[in-house]
Amino acid sequence: MPKRVLTAESVTEGHPDKVADLIADSVLDACVEHDPMSRVACEVLCKGGDVVLAGEVTSDATLDLDAIVREVVRQIGYTGTEDPFDADSLRVTPLLTPQAREIGGAVHREADPADALGAGDQGIMVGYATAETPELMPLPLVLAHGLSRALAEARKAGEVDWLRPDGKTQVSVEYEGDRPVRVTRVVVSTQHEPGLDQAEIAAFVRDRLVPRVLGDWHNDWIELTVNPAGSFEQGGPSADSGLTGRKIIMDTYGPFARHGGGSFSGKDATKVDRSGAYFARYVARRLVRGGLAKRAEVQVAYAIGLPEPVAVSVDTLGTGDAKAAAELLRRFDFRPAAIIERLGLRRPIYRLTTNYGHFGRPGLPWESDE
Predict the structure, then answer these.
(1) Tell me, what CATH number does 175's domain have?
(2) Is the pTM of this model over 0.85?
(3) C-alpha count within 13 angstroms, C-beta hemisphere, residue 259
(4) Domain coverage including residue 211
(5) What sign results for the dihedral spanned by CA atoms 44, 100, 59, 348?
(6) Domain for residue 311, yes or no?
(7) What DSSP designation does 98 have?
(8) pLDDT above 70 as % of the chain
(9) For position 276, what pLDDT does the model report?
């Protein structure tokens, strides 16, 4: 069978863009916790000693945005440093206004309860599943996320005392046809304390981190690259800017499925670029779990204010019964109100989704077989 090498990447929770995403999802959770009907579209910019929050929030919740931001940054680990981005010295600038009246009126429709919620925007959402891993996710992405998560866990557990919050990982896997056969290359870049010998970092990654995360996929022929640029002392928003919605490919399926372009973090469930994508994944999982395909991609498109999607389709990518998959697809209700009800999306669950992928992790309602 033809061979090819496919690659996916991930970042740690201390990466500037993920700092922004987690702040946005924490603002969303704070709104939904006190007012489940909140409408939230929060964007965040982090740079230097500043965090800027912009967008639309319509909620009965009373928010202490300054406290929310500082607590998120503190939990990530940017504290007690001489760098500008520090939880105790940040400047927080809120630029949040209520949702536009025209959009609010279009989304909330006075009609039959099943149709009382129109889509919060137009757009195309994609859900994907593959039988190549227990998580029903592409293997390179599962391993890349695992490495990023392991870096954060090792730092927080004090396994080594020189790790800092920022970091990136990348994993390449050789495939024969659609079947992964071996890991060929791993790249790990991690922020560290000043003055550290790069050989010590490489030894930790090579001897402890990579074997632990890769497990049975570890082999002696992997080409490992650690901190390819050399010293990585400056990191996080002190060194680079962070912005919500800039990691949409690693948030979803890596380069293994198409993407409609919408981001997730900071958006409540009336925004179908989030809820629609979650439900498309839910359906794609059902198709693969049910044995109708080894790989499945579900696409759904909406028009703002309309409950019914303008198009829904499924592609088994040459790996299954396309007719049976299309028949199963018709059994699912893709209207926003039905999705919100079925997945329980008016709960403060969103900061649990921010890091290491929105899919393929247990405990999230769209990852359930129920």
Answers:
(1) 3.30.300.10
(2) yes
(3) 16
(4) 3-11+139-233
(5) negative
(6) no
(7) P
(8) 95
(9) 96
Whether the Cβ atoms of residue 12 and residue 254 lie closer than 8 Å to each other: no
d(CA 285, CA 299): 13
Q: How far apart are CA 296 and CA 146, in angstroms?
A: 23
**Cβ neighbours, 10 Å, residue 333:** 15
Residue 271 located in a structural domain: no
Both structure tokens of 299: 């696409």
Is 102 a residue whose pLDDT tops 50?
no
Domain count, the chain: 1
Q: Residue with structure tokens 């019914």?
A: 308
In a domain, 153, yes or no: yes
CA distance 91 to 84: 10
pLDDT in tens, 124-178: 999 999 999 999 999 999 999 999 999 999 999 999 999 999 999 999 999 999 9
Strands (E), 158-240: 163-176, 179-192, 223-226
CB 224, CB 204: distance < 8 Å: no
> What one-character DSSP code corresponds to residue 206?
I
327 has a pLDDT exceeding 80: yes
Residue 332 lies in a domain: no
Q: Are 127 and 252 in contact (CB under 8 A)?
A: no
Rounded Cα–Cα distance for residues 249 and 258 (Å): 9
Report pLDDT for 31: 97
**Banded pLDDT at 121 (limits 50, 70, 90):** confident
Evaluate if residue 122 carries a pLDDT over 90.
Answer: no
